Fold each of these.
Amino acid sequence: MTDTILRTTNLGKKYRNRWAAQNINLEVHQGDVFGFLGPNGAGKSTTIRMILSLIKPTDGSVELFGHDLFKEREKALFSVGGIVEKPDFYLYLSAYRNMQIAGSMTLGRTPDKKNILETLETVGLIDRAFDRVKTYSHGMKQRLGIAQALLTNPKLVMLDEPTNGLDPQGMKEVRELITRLTKERGITVFLSSHLLNEVEQVATRMAIINKGEMVVQGSTAELLKTNANKILLNVEPKKKAFGLLKKMKQVAEPSLNDKGITARIEQKDLPGVVKILVKNNCKMFTIEPKHSLEEYFLSIT
Ligand SMILES: Nc1ncnc2c1ncn2[C@@H]1O[C@H](COP(=O)(O)OP(=O)(O)OP(=O)(O)O)[C@@H](O)[C@H]1O
Ligand SMILES: [Mg+2]
């Protein structure tokens, strides 16, 4: 049996007359790295804020570890840690001192030295523990934020865009950290992002949200199942090729976008299709298989 540790039921938040998030039905299982994917303004932060009880929902309910967030707030949030948007630090103090202060706020007491050092070790900041945060890179600050969220020994960590603004190396470090948290410490991680390729690299399950509404949810493997017949053609001139493809009966659902032309073409028909394009003086640069989620996500972002 899968153990659902976070469940939202028809969760929604309305600001004035607009729903920032509506009918959000998330199901996060123990041990998941759960990716919450959506373009800017989709409602990710709003949803995370509701789950962390930082704002009051207009509608629906949240259950954490079997406890209703609104009836048993303390019990529900007991094993949950998180950061929403950018974490704040005392820049002139060391990471160690920041951890002491953050800990005394969340735990109500100064955390033990051992706990702080182990946590800084986990996030890869142990060598810089006593340096001022001012001297930290963006990626290091991001990992310090995660360290602060870990101080209470949570079983579920909610991270809002933990890789936002990081370079590829910084992103990789955060991804590796997330994997470590689940593998080594058994922590379930919920993270939001607006980048599909980033989420698909770490998430075991994911949900997509757009314009405040949930579009799809499921296992990453299931959602990314390649659709063998869906391809992206990088061909020039695009418009001319598009016109030709539209007329071919072996080509289904052609659509023109920035990256080229996507269409559904059976493999056995592909050489024939390419031949016609080339005969008509179109230049074929690449043909790539597409998974349907990527194209879908592209179309809403
Ligand atoms: N306090 C608020 N008052 C009014 N509208 C708000 C408020 N907070 C968020 N919204 C609106 O709700 C919608 C969802 O915002 P939210 O911050 O949840 O999106 P997001 O998915 O986190 O976006 P981003 O990727 O840019 O962080 C947006 O249209 C936003 O303008
Ligand atoms: Mg946000």
Note: The chain has a mean pLDDT of 92.
Amino acid sequence: MRVTVVGSGYVGLTTGVALAYLGHEVSCIDKNEAVVEALRKGKPPLHEPGLDSLFSEVRHRMRFASELTAETAGADVVLVCVGTPPQRNGDADLRYVEEAARALAETLPEAADTVIVNKSTVPVGSARRVEAIVREGLARRGVRPQVSVASNPEFLREGSALYDTFYPDRIVVGSEDPWAVERLRRLYLPILEQSFTPPQGLPRPDGQGLPVFITTTPTSAELCKYAANTFLAMKISFANEIAGIAERVGADITEVMRAVGLDRRIGPRYLGAGAGWGGSCFGKDVRALLALAEQYGYEMPLAQGTLRVNERQRRVVVDKLQAALKVLRGSTVGLWGLTFKPNTDDLRDAPALDVARRLVEMGARVRAYDPVGMSRAQREHPDLALEYAPSPVAAADDADAVVLMTEWDEFLHVDWQAVAKAMRGRVVIDGRNALDRSALERLGFQYWGIGR
Ligand SMILES: NC(=O)c1ccc[n+]([C@@H]2O[C@H](COP(=O)([O-])OP(=O)(O)OC[C@H]3O[C@@H](n4cnc5c(N)ncnc54)[C@H](O)[C@@H]3O)[C@@H](O)[C@H]2O)c1
């Protein structure tokens, strides 16, 4: 099939590369010339495990441009994967989605037979909105191609985006047009039937069942994405809320949540207590759901609580440092990890940046290390008065405390003897409950976890 992907970020590029691997003819459009330039040079402008090598395998079959043409707009399927950042009131900003819709309306040729797909996370009514923009534009031009707008929310996780694209739990398509649904079913057929040969380095997981193809109304498809993300964020916030009480009564949250999560009705994932969730999606999507509810005069206390617990959780790390060091002004803190989670270079809403900012405000000297996020941090947060170190041990040099904020593998296998030698103090704050407490205590460190 001829597929055009509008927006070549974490979602668009991953999806485009995966679809090209599955045999589709893919054009990636991004209005950011630097992104297009990087793609043309064969270098994906973002970090995602496995992406560089799969991209180099399929890129000769892909095309890249900064603008739509009649040919790319008139593909069999156009996937809109542009950003939908939060507005001040929490509502999703649809300006990029609308921009893409207008560009499609201006370029779709008369002979097109195209399904336009909202893959971006968008509030209810957005498929309708895109459809209205496209129809108005086409009417103005006096052309009448066959077009349908469907909603196809994306559930991939950064850090395992390709894996999630090839091996999803479900594919949701919201549409009123049976022919559009059928076309999207054919687009995803190799994934639905798991009939493709797995790419190198992305083996099919054992016992992988077939993904469920769910067809819904556009509104249900739009709402399910917000509901899913709010639930996942709520699970983590729930674990963090219990962590606070675990600390007070002397329980260990990792033991508690292991026992809780083994209940099949609950499940073990997304129950890790720590410095809280971040990233480009959870906070934005929970807020967008709350903004939607407000338009209906409807209260959502669970969603509100999910946010509140997470905001409080970011302070817990600084509170612990304060409790351990007493005075933060003049102290040196080694900060391990900047990205909002491991295996990505994404810093959007990263808890580590919040913690870093607060520590600097309180007069601490912060020396940070992250395996991939440092150049992006320097570029995107030039105001942040951090020092950047070339290794975890260098970040710990002369530090009173080390704080683990992102559980990159590199931190889990660090040479603790070398860290002990480098540090001035002995305090380790494990903001992800990822380190081996007894091993650290044996080496003389003062270990502080979250909820233990
Ligand atoms: N990142 C995730 O983990 C994830 C997961 C599921 C869903 N989503 C949703 O997918 C959407 C995209 O997220 P992302 O993280 O990939 O965003 P991103 O910021 O990484 O990428 C968006 C890209 O779209 C481009 N763009 C913006 N307007 C454009 C236009 N009019 N024409 C062409 N290109 C345009 C930007 O230049 C940018 O490169 C968002 O709605 C997000 O909520 C993201």
Note: The chain is about 45% helix and 15% strand.
